[in-house]
Write a structure and sequence with these properties.
heterodimer, A: alpha+beta, Aldehyde Oxidoreductase, domain 4, Aldehyde Oxidoreductase, domain 3, 7-stranded mixed sheet, 19 helices, B: alpha+beta, Ubiquitin-like (UB roll), DNA polymerase, domain 1, 2 domains, 5-stranded mixed sheet, 5 helices, 37% helix
């Protein structure tokens, strides 16, 4: 079922689904009245600076803190040895590994936390940090996973008992025997080796905490840059042994997150421990360099893919072997069952019976992480690989890449479709989205122009990606993090005057939850969107939830919101029947009113009902109009789309410029089209960034080369391409409002489209691959070969 | 060092260390936290304010360099108690998501449209190329600045007639 029009059912005043309601959160943000982590000041607050390792790998001999302690204004210097006395030198990661809070035995990456200085002023804390003298004995660093697997490689995780290699995990999916059998039948095998480089989400606001442990009561109020405040509270309870009811995490306005604010970082734990010991609030705000060198990186997958095809372009099977560079600690936030995240969705938008995916994670002397940077658990890497493979297969078979896709798309009548690696795709119409994108960009004309230009020695490339994402983790039978099932929650209270407050377990970082979740309530209950306040990010005042990442807020918490609103509507109907002196069976809901069937004049509004819920409710019914829902999704959702990019490549310099970028997205039913388009434009830009410039790289000594914004390049408005966006709408059949989630589609789908475009410009010259970032010198070098 | 800096029409006098950065003076001495810190290296631009009407990045400027100067920060953007055209336009055009770069973007946009109220897409993009945004892909920031320019131009032509 695909429609291109989805007219709102409510009036603009109600502002339900489909209205581009202006955002509630903007009023404070455009007046400089947001409340970000660094804006929080508490009486008597102290400031923390962290001393970090200059070495990637070194034994830690001794730390001399005396000079630092002598600096006027320095209150304390915290070391791993001190933390160890409280059993806080190590902490669990969200992937079930352990990570050093402050190093005690050795340092395992450049930038690792070694000591912390607490002072009365942030400048003095930074001064103190320069006076901490640390004695190291360097060890040979391991700077890529291949090196880590060499037989004589030094063991990085000597802290783990009986660890004799650098393997962090091994994992597989699919059916190896069936895949091998299909490969034996293939006319051709197309293979591709590519590295999806290490990147960093790098929100413009870095991470930070204000830890306030009350010395009299022991209660800890932790203001933290957290995308998952409830899960973090539980981790804190486990790490610090504090009673969970005495921990309150408040995640204030977040200046972007993109996955960077999912993990628990050592700085949070050190500041909390310092506040606990000193008895005063302690603030720690990362510098940009700290953010880039030590907190959750993304990607860094070395992928080998093979596609078995027939001569007429039918895909028979896919084989993928992947090596992941995990850094020094396995600090991804993957669901427990899936060690490589949801990478096995690598079969993509195509129908074939067999696939086999083997993955191996390797410890290296680099920052830990593996966060999903605007990506649902490694789906970005998967989508990139299959879309690059299909494009290359088309060239090898002499087919147009669009035709290659058309021959292999899963068809609309095949949904729900079970993929060869076990995902059950909920709905899709891939060909319609592709046709629409081809139509908008004028695909056939561009191909004609490409032929003409080639004769003149000019290079025009047309690249495509027809991606499928898997988001909305997830059903409790398969999805948990550290054992916490990945449900989410919504608590809705309708006040006597008919205004409402909605409290959520998720946490916006700019996605506009205060507006979009109010729209879901408006759709279901008829309360105007401006009468609904949305509260998030305070563990004392919101129901438990797993947080915002992996495009899960709308699929999970959005569903919880719709379900609780419907439950309240059911109760409201009983009250309406009471007010209208009719049987509940005779009451029908016609947003925003309850009516008696067949009596047009007889109706009450939701506001009438809300007032009656507290003042005039029927006998036998509980007072009030409020409730909470914990939603366990029956399945994941599968947004999709087709992106087509046209680029002009300069053969003399290797520079490439995006001429057109057409994005057709299908995220199911849209709550707020304005916000959806805004998210897609942002994602297309971050996809362009990864394809063209963003890159956290290291030298052979393990020194991070992308440690500031002069070396880690982020596109400005000037470099950013212009986007032409369009939609198809294929609702999710299992989601209460048919929505699928959209925050990450464009980051997942677009890198392959950009890279495919550059390869398309060069493929007639024999170029089959250039790894990201596709820098001009790499293009130029490929042209020389 | 004793300095006096006028911010949004109010004088802030303080005895500051010579090394104090201007952005810290604005945020802690004046208590105006709408000006943010993003990169420490003059790269991202979220610390931009208007110094004597010119956009300046305050994370690599010392507070003492602003002695005697007049600054405008996001808190000073309102006009006669009402949202200014640039603020209205950022809301109307959905020119912000997380809102962290927004105060600086609005100040740069305001200074730019005073020079060029009817800019092309390219002209706006060049004007804001010293300021990064990670959420929006700049699309609606460009629109917002153009919309505000049109409002300002319409306002001044009304005044002229």
């Amino acid at each position: 079922m695909t429609t291109t029009e989805h007219a709102p059912k409510t009036s603009p005043e109600i502002g339900g689904l489909g209205h581009s309601v202006k955002r509630h959160e903007d009023a404070r943000l455009i007046q400089g009245a947001g409340n970000f982590i660094d804006d929080i000041e508490l009486p008597g607050m102290l400031y923390m600076a962290i001393v970090r390792s200059p070495w990637a790998h070194a034994a830690l001999n001794a730390i001399d803190t005396s000079e630092a302690e002598a600096v006027e204004g320095v209150v304390a210097v915290v070391t791993g040895e001190l933390l160890a006395q409280y059993d806080l030198a190590w902490m669990p990661t969200l992937s079930g590994d352990t990570q050093a809070v402050l190093a005690t035995d050795k340092v395992r990456f450049q930038g690792q936390e070694v000591a912390a200085v607490i002072a009365t002023d942030p400048y003095i804390a930074a001064d103190g940090a320069t006076k901490v003298i640390v004695d190291y004995d360097p060890i040979d660093p391991i700077v890529n996973p291949q090196q880590g697997l060499e037989p004589d490689a030094p063991i990085i995780r000597t802290d783990l008992e009986d660890k004799t290699d650098n393997v962090a995990y091994e994992w597989e999916a699919g059916d190896k025997a069936a895949t091998d059998a299909a490969f034996a039948q293939a006319d051709r095998i197309i293979s591709l080796d590519t590295h999806y480089p290490r990147s960093h989400p790098s929100p413009l606001e870095t991470c930070g905490i204000v830890a306030d442990v009350n010395p009299a009561t022991g209660e800890a109020t932790l203001y933290m840059t957290s995308q998952a405040p409830h899960a973090h509270r539980t981790v804190f309870a486990l790490v610090a042994g504090l009673p969970e009811q005495d921990i309150r995490i408040i995640s204030p306005d977040l200046g972007g997150g993109f996955g960077n604010k999912v993990p628990v970082y050592p700085g949070y734990v050190i500041a909390t421990a310092a506040s606990l010991v000193i008895g005063k609030p302690v603030k720690w705000i990362e510098t940009r360099t700290e953010n880039l060198i030590s907190t959750g990186f993304a990607r860094d997958y070395h992928m080998h893919g093979e596609l078995a095809v027939t001569n007429d372009g039918q895909i028979l099977a896919l084989k993928v072997d992947m090596l992941s560079d995990q850094g020094a600690f396995f600090a991804d936030a993957q669901p427990t069952k899936f060690r490589a995240g949801l990478f096995h969705v690598v079969t993509g938008s195509y129908d074939y019976p067999a696939a086999y995916v083997s993955t191996k994670g390797v410890y290296t002397n680099k920052a830990p992480g593996g966060v999903a940077y605007r990506c649902s658990f490694r789906v970005t890497e998967a989508s990139f690989l299959i879309e690059r493979l299909v494009q290359n297969a088309a060239y090898e078979l002499g087919l147009d890449p669009a035709e290659m896709r058309r021959k292999n798309f899963i068809q609309p009548d095949q949904f729900p479709y079970e993929s060869a690696t076990g995902f059950v795709y909920d709905s899709g119409d891939y060909e319609t989205a592709m046709d629409k994108a081809m139509d908008i960009i004028g695909y056939d004309e561009l191909r004609e122009e490409q032929k003409r230009l080639r004769k003149e020695g000019k290079l025009l490339g047309i690249g495509m990606a027809s991606f499928t994402e898997v988001v909305g983790a997830g059903p409790s039978k398969d999805y948990d993090i550290l054992g916490l099932k990945m449900f989410d929650s919504a608590e809705l209270r309708v006040h006597p005057t008919g205004k409402a407050i909605l409290k959520l377990g998720v946490k916006s970082q700019g996605q506009g939850h205060e507006t979009t979740f109010a729209q879901i309530v408006a759709e279901e209950l008829g309360i105007p969107v401006t009468d609904i306040k949305v509260v998030e990010g305070d563990t004392d005042n919101t129901p438990y939830g797993l947080g915002t990442y992996g495009s899960r807020s709308t699929p999970v918490a959005g569903a919880a919101t719709a379900v609780i609103a419907r439950k309240l509507r059911d109760k409201a109907k009983l009250i309406a029947a009471h007010l209208l002196e009719a049987s509940a069976d005779d009451i029908e809901w016609d947003n925003p009113e309850f009516r008696v069937k067949g009596s047009p004049g007889s109706s009450v509004t939701i506001q009438d009902v809300a007032f009656a819920a507290y003042t005039n409710f029927p006998e036998g019914l509980e007072a009030g109009l409020e409730g909470v829902d914990y939603y366990d999704p029956p399945n994941m959702t599968y947004p999709f789309g087709t992106y087509i990019v046209a680029v002009d490549v300069d053969p003399d310099t290797g520079e490439w410029k995006v001429r057109r970028m057409v994005a057709v997205d299908d995220c199911g039913v849209k709550i707020n089209p304005m916000i959806v388009d805004g998210q897609i434009a942002g994602g297309l830009t971050e996809g362009f960034a990864m394809a063209s410039m963003q890159w956290i790289t290291f030298d052979e000594g393990g020194n991070c080369i992308g440690s500031n914004y002069m070396d880690y390049l982020i596109p400005t408005a000037w470099e950013t391409p212009r986007f032409e966006m369009a939609e198809t709408v294929t609702p999710s059949p299992h989601h209460p409002i048919g929505a699928k989630g959209v925050g990450e589609s464009a980051t997942v789908g677009s890198p392959a489209a950009y890279v495919n475009a550059v390869i398309d410009a060069l493929q007639h010259l024999g170029v089959t691959n250039i790894d990201m970032p596709v820098l001009p010198d790499r293009v130029w070098a490929a042209l020389q070969e | 060092m004793e300095i006096t800096v006028n911010i949004n029409g109010t004088d802030y006098a303080a005895d500051v260390a010579p090394r104090m950065l201007l952005v810290d003076f604005i945020r802690t001495e004046a208590g105006l936290t709408g000006t943010h810190i993003g990169c420490d290296t003059t790269s991202c631009g979220v610390c931009t304010v208007l110094v004597d009407d010119t956009p300046m990045k305050t994370c690599t400027m010392f507070a003492v360099q602003a002695n005697g100067k007049s600054l405008t920060t996001v808190e000073g953007l309102k006009e006669n108690g009402q949202l200014s055209p640039i603020q209205e336009a950022f809301k109307e055009e959905h020119g912000l998501q997380c809102g962290f770069c927004t105060p600086a973007m609005m100040l740069v946009g305001k200074a730019f449209i005073e020079e060029n109220p009817n800019p092309s897409d390219d002209e706006v993009r060049w004007a804001i190329s010293g300021n990064l945004c990670r959420c929006t892909g700049y699309v609606n920031i460009v629109k917002a600045i153009q919309t505000a320019g049109a409002t300002v131009a319409a306002g001044s032509s009304q005044e002229a007639s």
